[in-house]
Write a structure and sequence with these properties.
This protein has 299 residues and is an alpha/beta fold. The protein contains 10 helices and 14 strands. The chain has a single domain, classed as NAD(P)-binding Rossmann-like Domain (Rossmann fold), CATH 3.40.50. It starts with a strand and ends with a helix.
Length: 299
């Protein structure tokens, strides 16, 4: 069975490729560059697929759409916010429109989303039935998911991956945090009471394979560990795993000065998310304990 992946070169996409190939799937990888060989197909978020390449999409078993502008690393200027939104909303629209033109539709469309859908929610626990938040990125996620759900109108089983903080030492939030912690300058961010909903990269990939194979799963699915932790607990645990002190806090006002709105959304907002639909469907996490997940990731 053949699967198309967008965003295949990212942290999750790279690991997912290996897992799918190990299970015998044939892959077609969307690329912004000119294809290097038959494994690739030209695609861009702005223009979608080329007309002459559409026949190559016939007969796909699944489309896994992970592409999107990185939300971290830069202040959210108006230009950056437009890129974040357009890459998700317009990029997803182009993929769904391509599927609509196929004589043989894919059986399943697995589309990226994020726990940013819920916004800043304090200590309240969020499940897939919880309402959307009211900040910028929550609005982006709402539009993003709306574009993905258009695939349902085509008769395609559609799954929305509301992914949390994915733990990988080579990328994402953890990859960024490791260096200052190793240097002994890591510490609590803000009050430290904000919730961080995390998942190991291994469980992220296992969960994607699970929803790919489970025909009864559709709609939003939270990809987070069943045990979210506060920033204070995350900081202390990471310090223990790295054998480094964690006594240098980053005050809330400093986060605002350094990162602006991006800092509020990614570092200070509190989002306590539970993977209810995965657990109800029988998915078993390999890593439910943060320390064990960090040790396995950083080893």
């Amino acid at each position: 069975m053949k699967i198309l992946i967008t965003g295949a070169s990212g942290m999750i996409g790279t690991a997912l490729q290996k897992a799918l190939l190990a299970e015998g799937y044939e892959l077609l990888l969307a690329s912004r560059s000119e294809p290097k060989d038959d494994r690739y197909i030209k695609w861009s978020m702005e223009d979608g697929f080329r007309e002459e390449d559409l026949p190559r999409l016939e007969g796909l078993h699944a489309v896994i759409h992970l592409a999107g502008e990185n939300v971290a690393g830069l202040r959210w200027t108006d230009e950056k916010k437009k890129a974040i939104r357009d890459s998700r909303v317009l990029g997803t629209r182009s993929v769904v429109e391509a599927m609509a033109r196929l004589a043989e539709k894919p059986k399943v469309f697995i589309a990226g989303s994020a726990i940013g859908f819920y916004g800043h929610r304090g200590d309240d626990a969020m499940t897939e039935s919880s309402p959307v938040g009211d900040n910028f990125f929550a609005g982006v996620c709402r539009e993003w998911e709306a574009e993905s759900r258009r695939a349902e109108d085509l008769g395609i089983r559609t799954v929305l991956l509301r992914t949390g903080i994915v733990l990988d030492k080579n990328g994402g939030a953890l990859g960024t945090m490791i260096t200052p912690f190793k240097l002994g300058v890591g510490g609590v961010v803000g009050s430290g009471k904000q919730w961080m909903s995390w998942i190991s990269l291994e469980d992220e990939i296992r969960a994607i394979l699970f929803v790919l194979k489970n025909e009864n799963i559709r709609g939003a699915v939270n990809l987070t560990s069943p045990n979210p932790v506060t920033n204070e607990t995350f900081t202390k645990t990471l310090g223990e795993v790295l054998y480094r002190p964690t006594f240098l806090p980053l005050p809330e006002f400093a986060v605002g000065l350094l990162f602006g709105e991006m800092g509020d959304a990614l570092l200070l907002d509190s989002t306590k998310v539970l993977p209810k639909r995965l657990e109800d469907a029988g998915f078993e996490f390999k890593y439910q304990d943060l320390k064990a997940a960090l040790e396995a990731t950083i080893k």
